[in-house]
Amino acid sequence: MKNPLKVLLATALVALAGCNQGTPGGQGVTTTPPHKPPAYGEADNTFNLSVPRLSTTLHQGETKVVSIGIERGKNFDQDVALKVAEGPTGVTGDFASPVIKHGDSEAKLTFKAADDASLGDFTVKVTGHPDKGADATIDFKIAVAKK
Predict the structure, then answer these.
(1) What is the rounded CA–CA span in Å between residue 35 and residue 33?
(2) Comparing C-alpha atoms, which of 32, 105, 42 is closest to residue 75?
(3) Who contacts 140 (Cβ-Cβ below 8 Å, separation ≥6)?
(4) What residues contact 33, with CB distance under 8 A and at least 6 apart?
(5) Domains, the chain, with CATH or none
(6) How many Cα atoms sit within 13 Å of 90 on the Cβ side?
(7) Residues 75-121: pLDDT tens digits?
(8) Residue 15 and residue 12: Cα distance in Å, rounded?
């Protein structure tokens, strides 16, 4: 019989490691093909974006602020401009040109759902564009619920 604690810990590690991982960006990605990330943290001169692990629920007519974070590898100190793909019908973003400055660890984005926004679960792609190097991408999950 297997030790239940070992099984539980292994399952938790797999779940955490596989959640909300996007593609890394930065100059380190393009200078060492094929890109092989380190076992822990970020590779030198790269970055990854982070979004909430669970789906963000937005009710029709509601406004919510969401943090988009950045995990910087060694020697990566660039500003990263964010681009958010079009979301579900009736959900808009109240942000012009969001940027995570080189000294910051996140950007706050405001999403608003219209009273008649489409209901359901949606995935929105967020792209981080550094001054130099490859873009990073990550999927952001949003659930639109009835008022």
Answers:
(1) 5
(2) 42
(3) 51, 52, 56, 66, 68, 84, 123, 124, 125, 126
(4) none
(5) 22-145 (2.60.40.10)
(6) 19
(7) 999 999 999 999 899 999 888 889 999 999 999 999 999 999 999 99
(8) 5
Residue type present at position 75: N
Q: Does the pTM of the predicted model rise above 0.90?
A: no
**Chain segment 28-60, per-residue pLDDT in tens:** 775 444 555 554 555 788 999 999 999 999 999
**Closest by CA position to 58, among listed 96, 111, 125:** 111
Peptide bond into 130 cis (omega under 30): no
**Distance of alpha carbon 96 from its chain centroid, rounded?**
18
Residue 50 exposed, middle or buried by CB count within 10 Å (0-12, 13-18, 19+): middle
Secondary structure class of 81 (helix, strand, coil): strand
Q: Rounded distance, CA 103 to CA 101, Å?
A: 5
104 alpha carbon, distance to own chain's centre: 15
By DSSP bridging, strand 56-59 and strand 136-145 are parallel
Buried b vs exposed e over 107-126: b needs ≥16 C-beta within 10 Å?
bebebebeeebeeeebebeb
